[in-house]
């Protein structure tokens, strides 16, 4: 079994183990752990703080256990794990999988600084925040998996030791495209920071493929009512206040725009699906329709695992400061700046240039005004 299939199988076992009757003997369990230790790619994973995430799934996000677990089971007659590798999605070195039904994304957290920050510093605050503020744009995390034991694969850094299961904000894309909808997405973060791939030697030392993986730029406007725009800004203020409190930087806003030329876009509900009627009020993660009827927007905040007080971020900050002192004063990177400064550049009401004046607030489709920077 190859690397991707082995990691996928390990994740599926961790998610579905609680739904199966445990019939293994003690000897069988010991032999299985022994086998895992000498495996390069298979890894023993277990849920971290399972009760907290179960409370979020069941009580806050109305996701039944059976419905959740069924997404990880392979289709009938399929011998492969119920996960599909997605491929390269950025600089982090993470592996990404999607469930076969595309409802959930599984992302690895390979850096110790990231998974230790989420486990030791952020987890309880995240859970409480999601309970207190149902409209939060912080991505829904349904489970947090970690390896409690060593293996050859972990020692040789061939497999990631921690994974998160999160919502797929693009759920429903294939069905929407079949109806003639156009789906576009942008991974937005402040682009005015120092990016070595772009800013050293005018980018000549990095390939176009490398530079294409930097933050996206949104060269357009989001048409919203004044109430929608005010609500969005209030949510972002509250969410980023939490992230700044726990010293997180380099997070991004993942924006999705759904457009159709033959009918008004349908507002998605039911954990991001495009089902027509469920009685659930539209939200930024399920779909907010623009007042002109041309678009539906979705948005979540991603990648809030890089915290300035951890060892690796401190080392990166030292190296960038040394570069600025000895070579060229390019300023901080998004991963080396202060949490408050990053938040100020991230928030659209204080940094419209960074967002390319993305939000166009209007009280009606016919009467609108351009929001201006402070």
TrEMBL record:
The keyword Transcription regulation appears for this protein: no
Domain PIPK: residue ranges: 1-354
Keyword Translocase in annotation: no
Membrane-spanning intervals of the chain: 25-43
InterPro entries: PInositol-4-P-4/5-kinase_C_sf (IPR027483), PInositol-4-P-4/5-kinase_core (IPR002498), PInositol-4-P-5-kinase_N (IPR027484), PInositol-4/5-P-5/4-kinase (IPR023610)
Keywords: ATP-binding, Kinase, Membrane, Nucleotide-binding, Transferase, Transmembrane, Transmembrane helix
Pfam families associated with the record: PIP5K
Name of this chain's protein: PIPK domain-containing protein
